[in-house]
């Protein structure tokens, strides 16, 4: 597969153009070199007793199916309807998010930053892939890839335009580079005309990208 | 280290290109690498900072071209070899040939939900009073450590303002070397776009980073 280059053929995988080749199923029974190497390591680690296969299954199930951006959307919707909660959320993100039963690995120390008409927040991790797992799940490939990590800090407005977010020229951009064990989540502005919606309906408007800062809630304006 | 991971401010990688369907994992081997890295991290043979250091130690050209879980896999191979948990001959053979080395812990399935819902906090008892306060002007030191650091190149030597004081946290630079947690005060320091990037910076842009106390010194000069 195009995204499974061996160690000596990195030119087969031009990461920057995002041509990951995921649309091409592997034909026949032959396994890719990467699949073979991973299988070999896994079987050694399991055989030696360092890794329990059932624990691997539990980890995969948890992070592939259980933990995702609906958690963060619940937090945002609560903050939109409950001013006291919003205040707690901005003062101590970890504790306020824990009030909703959400927390854990990759979100031990949460900072929530609020968008305003004057200021738009954008979260990146230039050095690796730090991301608030309990509220957003595992990060998408683009968040972990060189184009976003390199440009979010130097050309955030250009990055936002690629995501379809055209900020007014007067809106200042605040970028948060997750260089320590603090994980950031953006609290977007509540869209206008949503006064009649209840908390659950509001949560449905909250996109994952709105909580990274690369998007807006459905119906939201920059 | 000044490795391939320190990407902030680089040019030439092209547009950000989200995938249409954004799968969490693109192949079975990515799932396995994710789970192996998590489970091996729990053994106590190393820590998260050490894993980041291992990933950063890849040749920069390879780091920038490899897919994410490929980076994780190559680092994991390096780590199990370096810690004597696996021998090179075993990797070649694809099978265990030698008896296992002792590890402190093995992650069991029933532990995953409670442990990962609790998380692994890295805040620690404060080592003493904080050197800086909110509003202080500080400069990021000009440092170029060959080991792990969380001070990105694009802020080194630049002057910014302390905007938050977070308490003491595990210091990644020593922890990555398994040389101790050596907790330090952690600050959020805010830099202007003008200070970081010059006259062409987006007007009004600021960039905030998490900075450990030893990365900082009182401002050497006024920020731009």
TrEMBL record, chain A:
Annotated EC: 4.2.1.84
Endpoints of the signal sequence: none
Reactions that this protein is recorded to catalyse: an aliphatic primary amide = an aliphatic nitrile + H2O
InterPro entries: CN_Hdrase_a/SCN_Hdrase_g_sf, CN_Hdrtase_a/SCN_Hdrlase_g, CN_Hdrtase_asu/SCN_Hdrlase_gsu, Nitrile_hydratase_asu
GO molecular function, one term: transition metal ion binding
Pfam families xref list: NHase_alpha
Superkingdom classification of source: Bacteria
Binding annotation for Fe(3+): 125, 128-130
Entries under NCBIfam families matching the protein: nitrile_alph (TIGR01323)
Name this polypeptide is given: nitrile hydratase
Organism: Methylobacterium oryzihabitans
Originating gene: nthA
Automatic annotation (TrEMBL), chain B:
Key words of the record: Lyase
EC number: 4.2.1.84
Catalytically driven reaction(s): an aliphatic primary amide = an aliphatic nitrile + H2O
InterPro entries, sorted: CN_hydtase_beta-like_N, CN_hydtase_beta_C, CN_hydtase_beta_dom_C, Elect_transpt_acc-like_dom_sf, Nitrile_hydratase_bsu
Domain Nitrile hydratase beta subunit-like N-terminal: 1-112
A single GO molecular function term of this UniProt record: transition metal ion binding
Nitrile hydratase beta subunit domain sequence ranges: 121-218
Family stated for the protein in its record: Belongs to the nitrile hydratase subunit beta family.
NCBIfam families in alphabetical order: nitrile_beta
Function description: NHase catalyzes the hydration of various nitrile compounds to the corresponding amides.
Protein name: Nitrile hydratase subunit beta
Lineage: Bacteria, Pseudomonadati, Pseudomonadota, Alphaproteobacteria, Hyphomicrobiales
